[in-house]
Amino acid sequence: MCVGLPSYAQDSSKSSAALIPGLHEKNDSVRFNEQEPGFQSILESMKGMKKQLLHFDSLSLRLPKSSFNNSIKDQLPVFRKLNNQSRFFAAGNGYISYSFYYRSNIDTPYAEKNIGQHQVLASTGVTVANYIPLRVTAYLRRSNSVVFRDITDVQVQYDAAAFHNQFADNLRNQLLERAGGIKDSLSGKLYDLKKVQLDGLLKWLDDKEIQQKRIEANEILKVEEIAYDKSKPESINRSRTDSLRKLAKAFLDAYDEIVQKYGTIKQQADSLKMIYDNSIRKMKAIQQRISDHQFLSPESYRELMNQAADSGMSRINMPKRFTWLMGLRNFGFGRTNVDATELTARNISLSGVNFEYNSWYYLAVAAGIIDYRYRDFVVGNFHKVPQHMYLIRAGIGRLEKNYVILSYFRGQKQLYNYASNSFPASAIKIEGYSVEAKWQLEKNSYIITEAGQSFAPNLQLLPDVVKNSWRLSEKASKGLSVKLFSYIPGTGSRLEGQYKFTGANYQSFNSFQTNSETVSWKLKAEQNFWNRRIRLQASLGKNEFSNPFIRQNYKSNTVFKSISARVNIRKWPSLSIGYMPMSQLTMVDGFLSESRFQTLNAGIVHFYKIGQAGATTNIVYNRFFNHATDSGFIYFNSINLFAGQSFLFKNFMVNLNISNSRNAGYSYTVLDENTSFPLSEGMSLGMGVKINKLNSEALKVGGQANASFTLFKRDVVSFQVEQTYLPGNKNQLISSVMGNINYTKTFR
Q1: Would 158 disulfide with which of 256, 289, 331, 735, CB 3.0-4.6 Å?
Q2: Does residue 739 surpass a pLDDT of 70?
Q3: Are 451 and 434 contacting, i.e. CB atoms less than 8 angstroms apart?
Q4: How far apart are CA 186 and CA 180, in angstroms?
Q5: Digit-coded pLDDT (tens) for 323-382
Q6: How far apart are CA 275 and CA 67, in angstroms?
Q7: Are 76 and 316 in contact, with CB atoms under 8 Å apart?
Q8: pLDDT digit string (tens) for 624-681?
Q9: Other CB atoms closer than 10 Å to residue 141's CB: what's the count?
Q10: Is the Cβ–Cβ distance between 400 and 485 less than 8 Å?
Q11: Of 204-218, 432-446, 687-701, where does mean pLDDT reach its minimum?
């Protein structure tokens, strides 16, 4: 826009003082000096100033909304390359660790002696095509135990978290830099230029000599006789006075014109400053949005770009390959974990391929060999039936919002029955479908429902045949799951609920189930008080298990109840307490029996200082309420108390622990003390004593020693050896030697 010149009053005695801050009228009347009037030289200097001002006023200042260059390319450098590497395949940080464990006796129901175990764990990060991070992990275990089997695992996993973090950091930095272009630099530079001109004009106008000449000029114009010389004729005085009055008038006119120019420039400077300040506010606002943005999905990025465009920032579209990678949640092969839905596959260890993607649509594929057995708990070396699974899931929507997903699973599943070398375990072929939907009720509340149908041999029939129907009235091969979650920020309340039903012949890869109909439900509530210093939790659940296919009509009804509280106040001890009662009702042929398993836990932890030393006190109380017939465990109906005290001094650390466990049949007490010394940077040494007492037996004293030191700045070697005593059969303490050595090498 063009900035025009405002009109000002022509009374020079008022306009300049009112317009220019700090410019005041002089009241001193100065005698007119005939020899050096001074107006001519000042007028000559004012001519040059007026030329500059007239040239400046001839410029038409078209003030842009923003000086941001809208011709910026659509792609940022971060989209083309996420790091400085140019190799297609580059290894990153990683480590390799070797451990050897030795046990002279194993504290398990399976008695073994002199067990040695070797473990190797290696992991490294790999970057493919400069921006795709992978994590390669290998695990090897060998042992002379017949219980712990040998393991060889290799896993290659797409590191979605690393990609998102690296991508978000690079993208955020690039966008913050580009957002700086919203600042109207042109207006800022023009404002600086005008500020310099204003300062120069104000300095000239407020000059003492100029002000003195202004007073003299006003007096010449107002008092005609002030320049008269009585010794000279009237004609000479009049001629001389007319000449001086013209000079004075020219001086005052030029002075007032410069004052008007000052006002015009001041108005323009204020407009430029307003435009510049507005651009700064917009820039800071969008930079704050960029800094706080999580870049969770392409949709959230597009939302951010819309906000940036409203602030004057050019829209930058994300290339398709990065849009796709942002939706890749999981991809791996080798040993991986599959955790799909309640009615398909839940917490499955899979050796195969696992893929999961979610943007506006959802797609997941998992296929491979599975093993339900906990790998370290193998009873005997019997023949195992191979188990495998194929799972395909597809739908629309985002997992964090609303979605509908259809799942199909198929494979071979080992039955949960007795097996040995003479009688190998049996297996069945199963397949099934499920539909899962999530409805986001509001920001912090949602409900998830799933319905499933399986097709598996009906074990009630001989021979086994697949005879399942789609009819809703036939519930034996159907399943239903409903979950509800809600959080109330105002009160700090969290509510969860779940209901699940599976028919007697419903088979999937989420649990063992043979001829059993299950109905389970659970309610859980959490409430925070006093700015989250106090937290209460309570839950109530029921798991009903019935088998209509056997003659006895076996039925089990288990009720789970728990309540816990935690108090955490700054500079005070942290307190936690929880009560978890559980009862199981079993009905066989009309006879009802009840088993109870109840546990009370309480603990106090306090961190504080004694002088310059740090200290920690830890007390834990545990109580079981049950009977020997309920669990067959020697620690039934027992009371357990543990107290620990730690002191951290400048040159060493001391730990003192005492524990006692007792019931009607035994009393077991352990006193443990250990001290560790940091000998130098990266090196430490520790030693301790452990005293054991079981019932009326004599004290058994053991000890332990450990050390750790660093090699080559990154490698760590550590070992520990302990002579201890473990409770054994017939209430006796059995000597046991334990030891391990570890070497870990890290690399970049």
Answers
A1: 331
A2: yes
A3: yes
A4: 13
A5: 888 889 999 999 888 999 999 998 888 899 999 999 889 999 999 998 755 444 444 455
A6: 11
A7: yes
A8: 887 655 555 556 778 999 999 999 998 899 999 999 999 887 899 999 999 999 888 8
A9: 19
A10: no
A11: 204-218
Say if residue 727 is preceded by a cis peptide, omega within 30 of 0: no
DSSP state of 509: B
Domain-by-domain residue ranges, the chain? 1-27+37-81+156-319
**Torsion angle in degrees (nearest 10) through CA of 292, 296, 298, 302:** -20
Q: Could you tell me the two tokens for 553?
A: 């009509």
Per the CB < 8 A criterion, the answer to whether 529 and 493 are in contact is no
- Name all contacts of 526-531 with Cβ < 8 Å and 24+ positions apart: 526/493, 526/494, 526/495, 527/491, 527/492, 527/493, 527/494, 528/492, 528/493, 529/492
* Residue pLDDT, tens place only, 439-493: 999 989 999 999 999 988 876 665 555 656 666 667 888 999 999 999 998 888 9
Cβ atoms 738, 706 nearer than 8 A = no
pLDDT-based confidence at residue 24 (cuts at 50, 70, 90)? very low
> What's the rounded Cα separation, in Å, for the pair 748 and 728?
47
Beta bridge partners of residue 416, listed in sequence order: none
DSSP result, 558-574: EEEEEEEEEE--TTS-E
Task: Give the 3-state DSSP-derived string for 582-622, with helices as H, strands as E and coil as C.
Answer: EEEEEEECCEEEEEEEEEEEEEEEEEEEECCEEEEEEEEEE
- Long-range contacts of range 409-415, CB-CB < 8 Å, 24 or more positions apart? 409/344, 409/345, 409/433, 409/508, 409/509, 411/370, 411/387, 411/509, 412/385, 412/386, 412/387, 412/388, 413/387, 413/507, 413/509, 414/372, 414/384, 414/385, 414/387, 415/514
Residue 661: closest CA among 702, 633, 703: 633
What pLDDT, on the 0 to 100 scale, is given for residue 376? 45
